[in-house]
Amino acid sequence: MFFSVPFPNFIYNRLRNNFMVQRNNLSDSKLKSSPTLDVRSGMDVESLKQAITEHLFFQQGRNIVNTSLNDLYMAVSYTVRDRLKQREHGTMNAVFENKDVRLVSYLSAEFLMGPQLGVNLIALDIFEEVKQAVEELGFNFDEIVVQEEEPGLGNGGLGRLAACYIDSLASQQIPAIGYGIRYEFGIFDQDIRDGWQVEKTDKWLRKGNPWESARPEIAVNVNFGGHTESYVDSNGHKRFRWKPDYMVRGIPYNTPVMGYHVSSCNFLRLWKSEAEESFDFSSFNQGDYYKAVDYKVKSENISKVLYPNDEMLEGKKLRLKQQYFFVSCSMQDMMNIHIRFEGKPEEFHKRWAIQLNDTHPAVSVAELMRILVDEYQIDWDTAWDSTCKTFSYTNHTLLPEALETWSVSLFAYLIPRVLEIIYEINYRFLNEVRMRFPGDVDRLSRMSIIDESGGKKVRMANLACVGSCAINGVAALHTELLKKQVLHDWVEMFPQRFYNVTNGVTPRRFVVLSNPGLSKLITNSIGDTWPGKLEELRKLEPFANDAAFVEQFRNVKLENKKILATLIKERTGISVDPTSMFDIHVKRIHEYKRQHLNVLNIITRYMRIKQNPTLDIAPRTFIFGGKAAPGYFSAKLMIKFITSVGDVINKDPDMKDRLKVVFFPNFNVTNAQHIYPAADLSEQISTAGKEASGTGNMKFSMNGALTIGTLDGANVEIREEVGNENFFLFGLTAAQVDETRNSGYNPHYIYEHNDELRQVINMINSGYFSKGDCELFKPITNNLLWLDPYMLMADYPLYTACQDIVANTWKNPSEWNRMAILNVARMGKFSSDRSIQDYCDKIWNVKPFKVR
Ligand code: NBG
Prior knowledge:
The protein is of the alpha/beta class. It is built from 34 helices and 25 strands.
């Protein structure tokens, strides 16, 4: 009877399929699936369909006819998770059979994971099957995929790097656990209102998270506050005991991390804080209900929210609590695992190689000592030996405002026993320094973990350096500068501890998933193994001169640009021409990243057209995106600056659509996946010496954008790989930046002597872009004219000249495309698989563990 009713096609399909599912089920009154179907692990379309339908019913309480898109997304995700779980168990069981295995632990306060469904389908190699299953159930697959709320548990590059690294660890079959915090609210969502950024809380867990599983049975407790006391143990040794004020319970939540086209599946373990009920019985007993509730609220607050600062320390008590909370949970968990392997506590380093993702988890050095010395009664020297062999530390920034320090009084108040241990580590370490460099008092005060100048502070970078066997920067230039500047004393003390590991990104998410058109073209040309062995992209080089390939490459880019143009229209109301050059600058908004230098170039071009309306210039669309830290005034003003300049230019009839300026709101992983594949030009224009590496620069090039950039961070190595002739280089070098500054830099002088620059600044100051308000952007222009800490004025003439070269090159599409294809072909080095291999070989000394 269904079939005679004229339903719209998709409803008809849904009803018919639902009917068939019911009919199948009816044939067995216990709702058992047909024997040919493998509902929990089958990878064929029929099994997947049945699995989705069953999850929909049993997990979500829905059926195909009355389901919402989100319920169906959940059912599809549970279906995929079943398949991941089997592989996760297989991996863990195999690992546990091997008593000598060394595991990697990636400790990071941030994991900017991005949506999970797509990447998991790619890793399991069932993308097409699941798509077909969903479509046969009567739904549009793309509509299901966009239901996912991305876990934005990170700020920017550092958190995204952690996510790329756990993907590569699994893909390289390295047994590993990522440890972090399960923030209830991740990085805020950004709205743009009247050109200004408005922050909204990110309620990513609102509709549930199908990827995680809570493991309350292995929860651990973390001490806070109170005091310490000494006692003598049964062997007559003096020992210490921490009598905390209160305890917080850490509940682990596991998310599977599937390797690409292998059977290994690791997991990410994120900690949620809860009250440790048993601990506050006294308040309950005394009838102090409010105190008990207050304690509960305080405990849960620890994992409530991610601090939204990027490259900026904020010395907040809750932030230190977060750090110690997740570190203590993770260290206890690792020790428990080690003991389950029947390991001896003092051989902890044989089980675990722990990577500190910046200094946020550096307190773990002291926490491991506390566990070994206080809880397992290991003598100090043995414990210290094991600790130093366990940890390695990655530095991610040279910016002084990001180097973490915590007041000693806060430490004493929150984690008194840990502070005592830090003092002991420092005392012994400074004795070593004294022996190595007798009489060098300044060195002692610089290297001390405790900063004694002004209010006493704990220097987290020093703690990380003392307790680590390896220290690395994230790009060749950054490591070199690190060794020369910030960590120079440490190089002299421990030269053998220093390494470089240049960052990388996962091509699975940032090419295969984000750019299916390009991926298909590559696969058709060189086969399908490149996503797991990115050096194979080199085989594309000859295609740069193959007219048919070039044509297809151009078409793929155009299609990607059309998709982005639609999104831009939807999110900003601005119409852009997909055939214009897409010149894109997306990353956190920061003065050192110099989004305002880009704007100065835009205004220059605008002025040139105003002065000569018939100027022959190729149409360009300037696209910006990125979040500003909520308390960072200059960054928020920068957003208003971009949108205001855009408002004027986009409406100016003289432009005849030759220039458009767009601020794409809420730059996150999901949006990034649409943005990188649509870029023609990638803006990587930080002041040389300031960007440690950058990873967006890699994502753009892999997707066939050309870069305009300074010799900063990984740009240096990208240029080396793709060839100088395929990279638009401009600007002062890091050394020149220092020289210029030291020889008395005078930005105002440059303003006075450069006509175009002067006109641009005057135009801004005249209120032209701010509805006559001459004051609005003064904080920006005054800063540039009188201080210019990031040397925009010095680089302005070089940047605009280089942009002229870009414009000329664009006029020759075959040349442009040839260069773009060579960029793709030569990006193999920047797969995070290569970075992980570097860490394995140079730093962790671990080998792949092949799971069948
Ligand atoms: C950032 C750097 C980037 C780098 C990422 C990942 C911090 C502290 N640093 O240049 O600014 O790519 O780390 O290494 O977030």
